[in-house]
Structure formats: structure tokens, C-alpha cells
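Ticket closed. Logging final result for DNA repair protein RadA.
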Amino acid sequence: MPKPGGNREAVAKTKSSKTTPTFECGECGWQTVKWVGRCPECQSWGTVEEKGQTTARTTAAKNLTSAAKTISEVDSSQAEFRATSIGELDRVLGGGLVPGAVILMAGEPGVGKSTLLLQVASAVARSHKDAPVLYLTGEESSAQVKKRAERIDALADDLYLAAESDLGQALGQIEQLNPQLTIMDSVQTLSSAEVEGSAGGVTQIREVTASMIEAAKRKNMTTILVGHVTKDGNIAGPRMLEHLVDVVCQFEGDRHSRLRLLRAVKNRYGPTDDVGCFDLTEDGLTSLADPSGLFVSAMTDRVSGTCITITLEGRRPLTAEVQALVAESQASQPRRAVSGLDSPRVSMLLAVLQRRAKLATLMKSESYVATVGGAKITEPAADLAIALAVASAALEKPLPNRFLAFGEVGLAGEVRPVSGIRRRLQEASRLGFTHAIVPRGAAEEAPEGLKTREVGSLPEALDLLMK
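Final structure:
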């Protein structure tokens, strides 16, 4: 006879051993226990598919491929930097490319990512001739890449091109050529036939990234992956992509400006607070060791409404010029236009000038504030320069020559200290500036030859300059 409760034990055992199906969106990776026609995360239709959960556990390997070593036995020379001959890129990376590192280069379309990496591939192939360089393109043909290489003088004997969109074929190219550097342009165009989903989907990006990382670590090969960005400026694909790679670089620039900025937002081998500057021309990208001249006008005569400041991009001081124009208006609500600056912060500074500095004429005047050369300034350290430029334009009194100012301005009209005062003043002295207005306590770090005046409030700064 069956034991009492035997059927219930069998049913319970069946229920506990049954795996619960999981449904995952093929576009964004969102998961749920029930199928839905539309993903609530990315709002895509028909992308949610069933993915059965597995209960298998990975067991320990009996035969180890490589035994653990003491830290003193590890050869660190295999992870030394290798310069690329492109100074600004080496500066951002911390010294150059590291063998076995995987770098993700992201940026908007048309900013110059492919041009920069083609120059990098050519420079590495010319300077390090111990192994070839492989450039895999999934968006262009090999002939198109060569035409661009001819235009920017990026031809090299050890530079190999391959137009591949299949992951298996790309890995085969790597196995056959055994390169020292591989560039994949771009990771969203590569797909694997063994994985479901279209190219650029979450599943495909995971497989492509994992396979390229495995090949890079196994062959001690530097790999650079080009990534697309979304409308919000974020890197397209799952966040796991940024966690898997060793370095994440952002390539930024305005379509109407020649300046391009390269910054590392993640770097396992170097700093993340440095910025590389490039000049985009018809002949390619040129490193700018001193880009200050791009953000300062060439006018030599004193003109009201202009003030120069020193901003910090990471650890790098850059000179920028703020220009302001104040004109009478007959409208009930005068127009205020801002370019290259934070518009709400400029509006706040205009209100501070009206209330604390007694410039009541700004209330009924049109105000136009902009930077020179397409520079974008977001840090509060430029507040004092913006306020002085607007006051100079309103009072029609030009500021002195070879003069600059920096400091944060509060709603009470006080001038607050900012970070990096020593680097700002050293850069000002190097460029030949002779006078500066700074927050209280900053004059102690001024180099010789630069006269500084400390101010504690905006009215105090205006009294010094507008006498």
C-alpha cells in the first residue's frame, strides 16, 4: 500500500524541481516572470522572449590550466604602457595602451571617432613593428576606410583592414593575424550567428563584448571597441558593457567647432580627471598641447563686455573668454540669450547684479552672453567673469588688458573660493596675464609677476574695476 501523504510528497517534489520561466527583452534586457507584448522599460513591441532559468551549478575544475602565483612572482612588465605617438591620447590613458586592455570609445556620430582610431592604428603600426595592427570595420568597406586613410596620411605597411559584421569571422581574423592592437568599429554592428537577436541588441552586445574580451586577455592584445551613444549622450547598450571593459573614453565636440575633447570616465590603469584636446581639420585630428588660443578672441583693442577666465577641464586649466552685450529694449519682457554657458546660472547672475550691485538698467535691457570659439563652461568658477563682463557691457567701461577673473558668486553677492586655484594662476602667469581678481585667500598661491586682488563680494570687485 502507498504510504499516507506519498502523492503529496511527489507533487511537492515536482513543483520544487520545476524551473520558473523567465522572459527577457531583447532590446534593453528587462526581465519578468510573465510574457508581455510590449516592454515597459524601452517601450518596444514583440521583443520579450522566454528564457528558461537553469538550475545547474558550475563545478570546480579538476585540472587547472594555470596555477596561482605569489604576487612577487607575477611579471608586471607585460602590463606596461606603450605610447601611441599621439600625445593627447596617451595623456588621457595615463601613458599609452596597455597590452590586454579593452577600451570602449564612445561619442556622437560624426564627432571623429573613426578618424582618431585610424590615426591611432597607423601610429602604432609605424612605431611598434613587432606585430601587426588589425582594423575591423562593420560600418564601411575596406576601400572606404583606405580612402580616409589616404586623406589623413594614415597608411602603414603593418596595418590590416577587414570589413566584418560576423563575430566568428572577426575572431578568425584575430586568430590568423595575431595582432598587437585590434580596433572594432563598431561593437553594435557585430553579431554572432550562435546567439538570438539582431545586431546591436542586448544579447548580441553581451556576446560580442565577452568574446572580444576573452580574445584580448588570452592573446595579451589591446582592443578598442567603438560604441554608439543615445540621444541623451549615454553609451548605447546594457550598462554591463561599461563594467566589463577596462577603460571607457568619451569623445566630445560641437559640430560647429573644430575642438574635440577626449576624457576617460573609467580607467583601471590611469587617472580619470584629465582631458585631451584635438583640432579637427581636413587632414585629420591634431593634438593640441595648448588649446587656449581657440577660446580667446584676437582683438587687441579694449572693448566693453569682455572678460577672460581660467576654467578646469578635469585637471587641465583652459583659458576662455566671456562676451556680453547689453542693449535697450522696448519690449515688456526683454530678451536674454545665452550661448556656451548655463542659461539658468546666467539668469541668476543677472538677478544678483540687479539686486546686489544696483544695476537696475539690466531689468529693462536685452542681455546676450556667450563664449568665444564654441567653448562650453559649466563650472561655477566662471561666475565672476560672467558678472564682470555683463557689468562692463552695461556701464560701457572696458576691463583692463591682460586681466582675468574667476570665482563663484552666491545669491548674497559674495565671492566664494573655487578648486584648483594654484593651477589656474600658474596657467594665467604662463600665458602672460598680469592682473587677476580672485576670491579671498587665493592670492597666497599666485606666482611671481601676476598681481592679484582679493575680493569678498561682487560689489567690491565692481568698485575696483569700474572706478
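Residues 278 and 327 are 36 Å apart (CA to CA). No further action required.
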